[in-house]
């Protein structure tokens, strides 16, 4: 697996580009992504499914920058979307609407209507009321919408409770114990074709075992539905494979996982889909930031940097861990500190009580594994402009999203 960030003689590089050169030209904070790492990970899914009918639908929510979507579209990806905004991005990026699956518990009438008109591949439906709405909108347009029901297989993803989605008590999907009845009632509706079953049990799974358990339950369900005359043709197993955020974490091997999936689906005559997000883009990205100040409150050391929870909210939201590396290794040892941003919230930290390089004001650091759910969850809180995004390709780099301006902050507001 290609590792995009590495030290060369004590200096941190992304592919062939020294990160501090980017920071000096583009200013900080900035997100930096490796094109090769993204394509590498996408291809590991696509090639792992070689020879069986399949589509890898990248989950746009993980990182929705147009350049990344364009790169993935050119590599043959489909897209998993959860809003009309994501569909707009896919189209602007040159993605094929015919390769789009539309997930999410709260699709609006307008979003469904425009997805139908654009001819997306299918809807992953999450309730009977939603199925009824799609049926009536498709009938009115004289179309037949391809539908999969998102099944809640009641499998414990054993991940952070905020990002686990496959248990009965979660808002997602339709209870596996009730879904057959829902299929049978939906079969009577016009304007829809019940082509698939889908599931997504949660995110950041370092152990793929629950995904395999869910796949097994889904295949049994396909058998039961077919026996009732519902001709299921497609199985969408969602996303969820995790990445090593801690230096010692395991990296689930996509190839090994897909080999096990292939054994399970063998002979079932299904078009297979996956919706990976994090495992495609997380390790390809870093958030580069400059140290503004050092200070001590009582016994506590603080490293105050120019990035904050508005650029990367994961530590504040999930107490998520991201490795923090100096762009230049120094001889000044380490310090145990809280790495915090300028935002007026005690929760505004990128790391707490962490042993990091003994960086000084002006030094540059990289917050690693930030390519997924980083910029995508960035906000303008405290009227902070969102950072620029940079794409590295070999020895070259370019801005793929400009840093916002102060005028961007007030666009659309009136006195
Ligand atoms: C329906 C659906 N598909 C795919 C994904 C992508 O998940 P991940 O980034 O964990 O691969 C998500 C997010 O968890 C999701 O909700
Ligand atoms: N945003 C979350 C994951 C949620 C995935 C979306 N269903 C994260 O940063 O880990």
From TrEMBL:
Keywords: Amino-acid biosynthesis, Decarboxylase, Lyase, Lysine biosynthesis, Pyridoxal phosphate. One of its GO terms (biological process) is lysine biosynthetic process via diaminopimelate. Its cofactor is pyridoxal 5'-phosphate. The keyword Lyase applies. Its EC number is 4.1.1.20. Residues 30-371 form the Orn/DAP/Arg decarboxylase 2 C-terminal domain. Pyridoxal 5'-phosphate binds at residues 240, 275-278, 373. Pathway: Amino-acid biosynthesis; L-lysine biosynthesis via DAP pathway; L-lysine from DL-2,6-diaminopimelate: step 1/1. Residues 38-282 form the Orn/DAP/Arg decarboxylase 2 N-terminal domain. This is Diaminopimelate decarboxylase. The lineage of its organism: Bacteria, Pseudomonadati, Acidobacteriota, Terriglobia, Bryobacterales. The gene is lysA.
């Amino acid at each position: 697996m290609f590792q995009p960030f590495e030290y060369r003689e004590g200096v941190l590089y992304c592919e062939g580009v020294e990160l501090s050169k980017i920071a000096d030209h583009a200013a900080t904070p900035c997100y930096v992504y490796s094109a090769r790492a993204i394509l590498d990970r996408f291809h590991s899914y696509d090639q792992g499914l070689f020879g069986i009918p399949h589509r890898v639908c990248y989950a746009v929510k993980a990182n929705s920058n147009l350049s990344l979507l364009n790169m993935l579209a050119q590599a043959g990806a489909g897209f998993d979307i959860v809003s009309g905004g994501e569909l707009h991005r896919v189209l602007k990026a040159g993605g094929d609407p015919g390769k789009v699956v539309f997930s999410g518990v709260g699709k609006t009438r307008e979003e469904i209507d425009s997805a139908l008109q654009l001819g997306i591949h299918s809807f992953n439906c999450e309730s009977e009321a939603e199925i009824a709405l799609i049926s009536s909108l498709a009938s009115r347009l004289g179309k037949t919408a391809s539908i999969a029901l998102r099944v809640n297989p009641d499998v414990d993803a054993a991940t952070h409770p905020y990002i686990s989605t496959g248990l009965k008590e979660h808002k997602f999907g339709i209870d596996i114990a009730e879904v057959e009845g829902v299929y049978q009632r939906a079969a009577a509706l016009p304007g829809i074709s019940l082509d698939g079953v889908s599931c997504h049990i949660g995110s950041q799974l370092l152990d793929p075992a629950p995904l395999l358990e869910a796949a097994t339950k889904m295949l049994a369900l396909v058998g039961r539905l077919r026996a009732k005359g519902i001709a299921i043709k497609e199985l969408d197993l969602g996303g969820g494979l995790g990445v090593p955020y801690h230096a010692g974490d395991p990296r689930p091997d996509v190839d090994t996982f897909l080999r096990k999936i292939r054994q399970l689906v063998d002979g079932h005559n299904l078009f297979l889909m996956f919706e990976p997000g994090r495992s495609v883009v997380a390790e390809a990205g870093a958030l580069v930031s400059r140290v503004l100040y050092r200070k001590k409150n009582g016994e506590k050391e603080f490293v105050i940097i120019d990035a904050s929870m508005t650029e990367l909210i994961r530590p504040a939201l999930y107490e998520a861990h991201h490795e923090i590396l100096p762009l230049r290794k120094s001889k000044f040892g380490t310090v145990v500190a809280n790495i915090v941003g300028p935002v007026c919230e005690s929760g505004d930290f990128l790391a707490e009580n962490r042993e990091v390089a003994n960086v000084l004001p002006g030094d540059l650091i990289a917050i690693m594994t930030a390519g997924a759910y980083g910029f995508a969850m960035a906000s303008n809180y405290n009227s902070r402009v969102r950072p620029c995004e940079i794409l590295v390709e070999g020895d070259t780099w370019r801005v793929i999203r400009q840093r916002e301006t102060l005028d961007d902050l007030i666009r659309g507001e009136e006195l």
